[in-house]
Amino acid sequence: MDTPDFLGDDPRLAAFSEGVDSAEKLLATDPAASAVRSRSVMEQIIRWIYEVDGSLRQPPENTLAGLLHSAGFRQILRSELWRRLVGIHTLGNTAAHSAGPIPRTQAEEAIGALRELLRFAEKRYLHQEAAAPTPPAAEWREAPSTRNTAIVQARGGSLLGRVLRSTGKGAVLVLILIALFFALAHFEPTRPTVRRLWAKTRLWVPSLPENPASIIETDRGETVRCWQGPDGKKIYGNVQPADGRFKPCK
Length: 250
Prior knowledge:
16% of the residues are buried. This protein has a three-stranded antiparallel β-sheet with strand order 1-2-3, with no helix packed on it. It is mainly alpha-helical and 250 residues long. The termini are far apart. Strand 1 and strand 2 form a beta hairpin. It has two domains: 5-131, Four Helix Bundle (Hemerythrin (Met), subunit A), CATH 1.20.120; 182-238, no CATH class. The longest helix is centred in the last third of the chain and has 27 residues, at 159-185. Helices cover 59% and strands 5% of the residues. The chain crosses the membrane at residues 170-187. Keywords: Membrane, Transmembrane, Transmembrane helix. It holds the Pfam family DUF4145. This is DUF4145 domain-containing protein.
């Protein structure tokens, strides 16, 4: 006999082991009775699994066939073990309702499947916590932080970093525009045609001598200072030097 030592950890599992032993003792004298006994012990073990496993739901048909063929129960078992349990069910029904003989080899196979079912119950329900320990709380809290950091790095850094980079590009552009404006404001064209065209844009402040060539007063009381241009004409003047507005002198 190959009775696992762990079965003493739970009274009902120990009773199941005794049931397997009793079925094994019947092999030599009555294989059919052994098969019927194996089916009965299997039903007791399966019902115990349904009690201790919170993920399993009772099927509408609360019979051994209904419990055995439930989708939830099939999912927790290896397919090979589940097929062996179906074989126990079929063999037990045949032995109970048929007068024909039951081969001893099939009854022995049923007992082997029962012992495998007991080992499955031990690993899954009696020592489940030892097999899959819960991570410490500190590690559990640390994992999301690490993940968030990786996400930020993958997206190109933090929000502050992206703002600074975009602001820096904008600041450089503004500085370039300011420098260009001052360069244009202090640019003095040499050709007369270009000078007149430049004056019409009202951007050029010419470098004029301290004393104007003439000073006139308009009918609106505005004082206009005129200077002699390089072409010999008085074409430049301003009402208020500070505002940079130009008008030609008469």
